[in-house]
């Protein structure tokens, strides 16, 4: 059973050892996290788990052994896990979030980002669970920042379009749900390629080769731990106040291009940055991106919700396991 409240334990008494079923002290608030194997989902799982919630995470290809393996396109499996676990809150992090993959596989991306999100919202409504659907700043075209929740979206690429359709599918099926829009993420990664921020690290640390870096698109790199905290705070607020619902924005507040992030990473590790070259032209390759989709976060701030880790501290914590040159490691940490 998912999130069961009994556990088998081995009890040793003089002369024998017994297998006994014992009640375990499980927190009464239950949260289900989709995409718990992904960059954001891992942080969300940890945040709830460490703050007195009974958290169950779902993954798909990477689920075993820590998480439940559920294909979100399988509506029967989704119905069963929700019926069995009866979560109070569902944080829906699973998505196809790579813009270039969405352009090349639009049907598969739409199934996950739109249809599966709508279905999850319906299932959540069926048991009265509060659903938080994670969305993106790419729903905006980036021509008139900062964006409030009430501003009209106009996504430039298919990824942004599927996420916006996902928002609509969620709110149509569940009018008590929340949509949380966030910008580019970084944090503890399994591989540097997992985040558009951490992927720059090798270009920064291998300073024998010059590297072109985008200096056109304005970004607001946001730590997954901060988003995870915002999700938990939002869930806890909602447990006390049913009027907490609808669309919200959360973002880091340090505006940087990729070139500026790369320089900040170099600075955080005392590495050289003279080999990094800023490219100020609009990128011509890949899916279109908004120039500046800065999110106005005042709605959440007014609710007393939020957390922001300074970029240099957050990126240093995330990247140090990938530092190649041990001499720098000594400079930075000893
Ligand atoms: N990353 C960013 O910079 C960024 C920026 C703005 C918004 N967002 C949004 O934040 C959310 C989380 O993004 P992320 O970067 O954490 O994504 P991610 O690391 O790419 O993780 C995607 C997750 O989706 C799961 N998944 C994929 N197909 C599935 C299926 N058919 N059934 C069930 N689960 C499936 C994956 O599970 P397996 O790996 O186990 O298969 C994985 O856990 C997304 O909604 C994304 O749109 C991300």
TrEMBL record:
Record-linked Pfam families: RmlD_sub_bind
Originating organism: Aythya fuligula
Summary of subunit composition and partner proteins: Heterotrimer; composed of a catalytic MAT2A homodimer that binds one regulatory MAT2B chain. Heterohexamer; composed of a central, catalytic MAT2A homotetramer flanked on either side by a regulatory MAT2B chain. NADP binding increases the affinity for MAT2A.
Biological function: Regulatory subunit of S-adenosylmethionine synthetase 2, an enzyme that catalyzes the formation of S-adenosylmethionine from methionine and ATP. Regulates MAT2A catalytic activity by changing its kinetic properties, increasing its affinity for L-methionine. Can bind NADP (in vitro).
The UniProt record lists the keyword NADP: yes
GO MF annotation: an example: methionine adenosyltransferase regulator activity
GO biological process: one-carbon metabolic process; S-adenosylmethionine biosynthetic process
Residues covered by the RmlD-like substrate binding domain: 30-322
Pathway where this protein functions: Amino-acid biosynthesis; S-adenosyl-L-methionine biosynthesis; S-adenosyl-L-methionine from L-methionine: step 1/1
Keywords: NADP, One-carbon metabolism
Family under the similarity heading: Belongs to the dTDP-4-dehydrorhamnose reductase family. MAT2B subfamily.
Gene3D superfamilies: NAD(P)-binding Rossmann-like Domain
Record GO cellular component, one term: methionine adenosyltransferase complex
Record's protein name: Methionine adenosyltransferase 2 subunit beta
């Amino acid at each position: 059973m998912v999130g069961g409240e009994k556990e088998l334990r081995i009890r040793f008494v003089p002369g024998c050892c017994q297998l006994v079923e014992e009640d375990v002290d499980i927190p009464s608030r239950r949260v289900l996290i989709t995409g718990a194997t992904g960059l954001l989902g891992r942080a969300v799982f940890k945040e709830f788990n460490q703050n007195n919630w009974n958290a169950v995470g779902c993954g798909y290809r990477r689920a075993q052994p820590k998480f439940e393996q559920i294909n979100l396109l399988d509506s029967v499996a989704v119905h069963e896990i929700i019926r069995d676990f009866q979560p109070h809150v569902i944080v829906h992090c699973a998505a196809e979030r790579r813009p270039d993959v969405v352009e090349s596989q639009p049907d598969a991306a739409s199934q996950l980002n739109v249809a599966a999100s709508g279905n999850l919202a319906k299932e959540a409504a069926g048991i009265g669970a509060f659903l938080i659907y994670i969305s993106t700043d790419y729903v905006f075209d980036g021509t008139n920042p900062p964006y409030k929740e009430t501003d009209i979206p106009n996504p430039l690429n298919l990824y942004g379009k599927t996420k916006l359709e996902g928002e609509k599918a969620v709110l149509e099926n569940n009018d008590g749900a929340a949509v949380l829009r966030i910008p580019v993420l970084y944090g503890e990664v399994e591989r540097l390629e997992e985040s558009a921020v951490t992927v720059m690290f090798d270009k920064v640390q291998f300073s024998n080769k010059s590297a072109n870096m985008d200096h056109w698109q304005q970004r607001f790199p946001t730590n997954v731990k901060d988003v995870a905290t915002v999700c938990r705070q939002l869930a806890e607020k909602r447990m006390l106040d049913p009027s907490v619902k609808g669309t919200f924005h959360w973002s880091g507040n340090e505006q940087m291009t990729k070139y500026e992030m790369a320089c900040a990473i170099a600075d955080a590790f005392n590495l050289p940055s003279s080999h990094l070259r800023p490219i100020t032209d609009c990128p011509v390759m890949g899916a279109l991106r908004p120039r500046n989709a800065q999110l106005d976060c005042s709605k959440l701030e007014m609710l007393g919700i939020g957390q922001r880790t300074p970029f240099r501290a957050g990126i240093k914590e995330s990247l140090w396991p990938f530092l190649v040159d041990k001499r720098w490691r000594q400079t930075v940490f000893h």
